[in-house]
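Run log // design_07
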């Protein structure tokens, strides 16, 4: 049986590719990879990886081994790096798969050496204090006997103009000095905007590829990729004083025309959009009124007489604006996109 999908995610492949090329241009002499962890931030890793490979991307970063396996038939498997590293159980399947671990701890280094020490990446912690070899752990000889491709570190506050950025740059340079690796890598999306000093040999953007404005500088530069659309399930006129949605958080000041759309917080259109988000139809702006529910959202269609049951309305999902009105980070808006949406690349 095939049912008509009430909810779809339109995904702009040209915008994705343009964003990657923009990050590559801004990365100067460095090559540019792509963070495709968490199913490419919710968009669909398989489609994203194929599009970016065709655009010239040759370095892909996932968090889990299962994520590497899910794209391993699409690109040479040694172009996939697994950021969360390995545990004992992973060593044999990791070697069998052929994706490259990012080794984060002395224990991970020891496991990989014991397994033969074939090609790996190493994460140095230059100050985020989250994952990676800390300066106090970086003793003489710790990295001997490994075939290191990428020596990397991760910035904690690249989206802010703070001293921590150059402090991390300095510490990464000191820590990686004298370690034999083929390439060095530090910058994520926001880090690319910090300038040449931060680019090293390889940059690792994620958010900006998918339309995120990691820094204000990317406004007007990074293009929107994700466009959610939901079917209008019902259109009705209600009277002055009538309340709308769960807990009656909105009351009609006068007679109004309301439309109910087939998208809700279970689809990643979170409750933060209650009385703050908006939909678009026929070039008009339809504010969300009342609370977003699990599968539904109500919009004010008073000024949009064109809208009728069965139409599809676009939810505003320009990430910078959507993040501001919902108080949800651009990262969470993307990764929160639910599985019920049909994904249509155009
Ligand atoms: C997620 C991640 C990235 C990409 O970060 P964005 O801010 O999305 O560009 C780069 N490097 C590492 C280690 C990451 O975990």
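design_07 sequence
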């Amino acid at each position: 049986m095939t049912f008509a999908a009430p909810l779809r995610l339109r995904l702009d492949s040209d915008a994705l590719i343009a964003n990657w090329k923009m990050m590559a241009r801004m990365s100067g002499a460095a090559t540019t990879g792509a963070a495709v962890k968490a199913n490419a931030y919710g968009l669909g890793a398989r489609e994203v990886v194929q599009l970016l490979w065709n655009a010239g991307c040759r370095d892909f970063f996932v968090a889990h081994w299962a994520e590497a396996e899910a794209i391993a038939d699409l690109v040479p498997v040694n172009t996939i790096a697994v950021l969360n590293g390995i545990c004992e159980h992973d060593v044999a399947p990791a070697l069998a798969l052929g994706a490259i671990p990012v080794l984060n701890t002395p224990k991970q280094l020891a496991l990989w050496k014991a397994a033969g020490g074939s090609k790996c990446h190493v994460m140095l912690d230059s100050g985020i204090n989250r994952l990676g070899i800390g300066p106090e752990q970086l003793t003489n000889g710790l990295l001997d006997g490994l075939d290191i491709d990428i020596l990397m570190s991760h910035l904690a506050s690249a989206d802010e103009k703070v001293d921590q950025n150059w402090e991390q740059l300095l510490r990464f340079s000191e820590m990686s000095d004298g370690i034999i690796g083929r390439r060095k890598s530090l910058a994520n999306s926001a880090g690319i905007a910090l300038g040449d000093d931060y680019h090293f040999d390889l940059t690792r953007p994620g958010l900006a590829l998918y339309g995120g404005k990691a820094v204000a500088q990317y406004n007007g530069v990074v293009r929107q990729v994700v466009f959610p659309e939901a079917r209008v399930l019902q259109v009705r006129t209600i009277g002055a004083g009538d309340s709308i949605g769960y807990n009656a958080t909105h009351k009609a000041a006068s007679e109004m025309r309301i439309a109910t759309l087939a998208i809700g917080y279970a689809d990643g259109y979170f409750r933060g959009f209650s009385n703050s988000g908006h939909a678009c139809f026929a070039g008009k702006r339809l504010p969300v009124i009342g609370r977003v529910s699990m599968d539904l959202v109500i919009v004010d269609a008073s000024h949009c007489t064109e809208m009728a049951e069965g139409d599809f309305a676009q939810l505003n999902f320009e990430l910078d604006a959507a993040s501001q009105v919902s108080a949800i980070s651009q990262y969470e808006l993307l990764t929160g996109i639910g599985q019920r949406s049909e994904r249509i690349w155009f």
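The two ends are 25 Å apart (CA to CA).
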